TrEMBL record:
GO terms for molecular function: acyl-CoA dehydrogenase activity; flavin adenine dinucleotide binding. Keywords: Acetylation, FAD, Flavoprotein, Oxidoreductase, Transit peptide. It comes from Balaenoptera musculus. The lineage of its organism: Eukaryota, Metazoa, Chordata, Craniata, Vertebrata. The gene is ACAD8. Residues 313-362 form the Acyl-CoA dehydrogenase/oxidase C-terminal domain. The keyword DNA damage does not apply. This is Isobutyryl-CoA dehydrogenase, mitochondrial isoform X2. SUPFAM superfamilies: Acyl-CoA dehydrogenase C-terminal domain-like (SSF47203), Acyl-CoA dehydrogenase NM domain-like (SSF56645).
Length: 364
C-alpha cells in the first residue's frame, strides 16, 4: 500500500541525496533543483548533520506516527539524543553542553526534524531554556541547572505566554512578590510545551511595575508547593509533546532561582526567542525536506493517465501531490504538515515577525 510505503521511505531519509526534477514550463527544459541539505556546510558540520540524520532515521522516524497517534512524550529517545550532545547544543562545555554555534545547531535541528518534527521542536525549546540559564545565570546556577538539562535527565519548559498576553508578551500579569529570601508567584501561563512533564520551568513574571522593565526571569522547579498544571491540551499537531497551562498559587521560590537581575527578564526572554525562532525555522526546513523526499518518490511510482505523476503538472504542494493518500493519517506527509503549522504562530507569529523585520530595516 502506498501509505505504508510513505513511512518506509521516511525511515530511509538518511543517505538520500538526490535531485528533484521540476516540471517543464513554457516549453523550457526541466530544471533540476538541488535538495542536498549539506550544500555549503564545512566538513565538521556535515559530520554533525550525518549523526543527526542517522539518529532521526533510526530512533525517531519509525516511531513518529505512534508518538503522534498515542500522544507519547518520548523521554527515553530524547535522552539518547542527549548522549550525542543534543541536550545542550549551544550551551558551554564546562556545564556539559556541546558548545556549538547557532549555525551548527540549525543544521542539527533541521536533520532531526526529518525523523519527528514535533519531538525536535520540543528539544529545541529545551535547548533554548538551557542556553538562557547558561548565558544569564550565575556560576552557581549554571552548574546547578545546566548539567542535568544537557543530559536530559531533567527537561525544561519556557513560560512566557499567558491567557491574556500572547504576542504582547510585555503585558504579562503573573506576579512575583518578594518576601524575605523568596518570591511568591501568582498567576498562570498558557500553551506551555512540556507542561506537567518538565522538571524546570523558566518563568517570566512581574516583579516591578508595568511594561517590559518590570519583568524578571525565575526558575521554578517541579514539585514546588503552589505549582500545578491544567489539563493536557488536544492539538492538531505537536502531539509527541504535552501542552498544558502552568499555574502558580502562592508558589514560593528562592530568590537564588532568579536568573539575572530584577527587571532583566523581558530581555532574557527575547534573547532566548531570537535563537528559538531560528530553531523552529530549522525544524520547518527539516519537515519540508522530508516532505519533498516523500513526494519525489511518490510521484515516481504513482500513475495517472498512463504515466507517472512526476510527468504531469497537476500539483504544487507535497500533500496535494499525494492526492487522497496524502490526506490519510497513515501517510507521513500529513503529519509533517500538521506539526509545522504551529510554527507560524509560536516563537512570534508570522505577523509579529514581519513587524520585527520592518523595524530592523527602518533602523538601518
Amino acid at each position: 500500500m502506498l501509505w505504508g510505503r510513505c513511512w518506509r521511505v521516511g525511515a530511509r531519509l538518511r543517505g538520500l541525496r538526490g535531485g528533484l526534477q521540476a516540471p517543464a514550463e513554457s516549453g523550457r527544459r526541466g530544471v533540476v533543483s538541488c535538495i542536498d541539505p549539506s550544500t555549503g556546510l564545512n566538513e565538521e558540520q556535515k559530520e554533525f548533520q550525518k549523526v543527526a540524520f542517522d539518529f532521526a532515521a533510526r530512533e525517531m522516524a519509525p516511531n513518529m506516527a505512534e508518538w503522534d497517534q498515542k500522544e507519547l512524550f518520548p523521554v527515553d529517545v530524547m535522552r539518547k539524543a542527549a548522549q550525542l550532545g543534543f541536550g545542550g547544543i549551544y550551551v558551554r562545555t564546562d556545564v556539559g553542553g556541546s558548545g556549538l554555534s547557532r549555525l551548527d545547531t540549525s543544521v542539527i535541528f533541521e536533520a532531526l526534524a526529518t525523523g519527528c518534527t514535533s519531538t525536535t521542536a520540543y528539544i529545541s525549546i529545551h535547548n533554548m531554556c538551557a542556553w538562557m540559564i547558561d548565558t544569564f545565570g550565575s556560576e552557581e546556577q549554571r552548574h546547578r541547572f545546566c548539567p542535568p538539562l544537557c543530559t536530559m535527565e531533567k527537561f525544561a519548559s519556557y513560560c512566557l505566554t499567558e491567557p491574556g498576553s500572547g504576542s504582547d508578551a510585555a503585558s504579562l500579569l503573573t506576579s512575583a512578590k518578594r518576601r524575605g529570601d523568596h518570591y511568591v508567584l501568582s498567576g498562570s501561563k498558557a500553551f506551555i510545551s512540556g507542561g506537567g512533564e518538565a522538571d524546570i520551568y523558566v518563568v517570566m513574571c512581574r516583579t516591578g511595575g508595568p511594561g517590559p522593565k518590570g519583568i524578571s526571569c525565575i526558575v521554578v522547579e517541579k514539585g514546588t508547593p503552589g505549582l500545578s498544571f491544567g489539563k493536557k491540551e488536544r492539538k492538531v499537531g505537536w502531539n509527541s509533546q504535552p501542552t498544558r497551562a502552568v499555574i502558580f498559587e502562592d508558589c514560593a521560590v528562592p530568590v537564588a532561582n532568579r536568573i539575572g537581575d530584577e527587571g532583566q527578564g523581558f530581555l532574557i526572554a527575547m534573547r532566548g526567542l531570537n535563537g528559538g525562532r531560528i530553531n523552529v525555522a530549522s525544524c520547518s526546513l527539516g519537515a519540508a525536506y522530508a516532505s519533498v523526499i516523500l513526494t519525489r518518490d511518490h510521484l515516481k511510482v504513482r500513475k495517472q493517465f498512463g504515466e507517472p505523476l512526476a510527468s504531469n503538472q497537476i500539483c504544487n504542494q507535497a500533500l496535494q501531490m499525494h492526492g487522497g493518500y496524502g490526506y490519510l493519517k497513515d501517510c507521513a506527509v500529513q503529519q509533517y504538515m500538521r506539526d509545522s503549522r504551529v510554527h507560524q504562530i509560536l516563537e512570534g507569529s508570522n505577523e509579529v515577525m514581519r513587524i520585527l523585520i520592518s523595524r530592523s530595516l527602518l533602523q538601518e
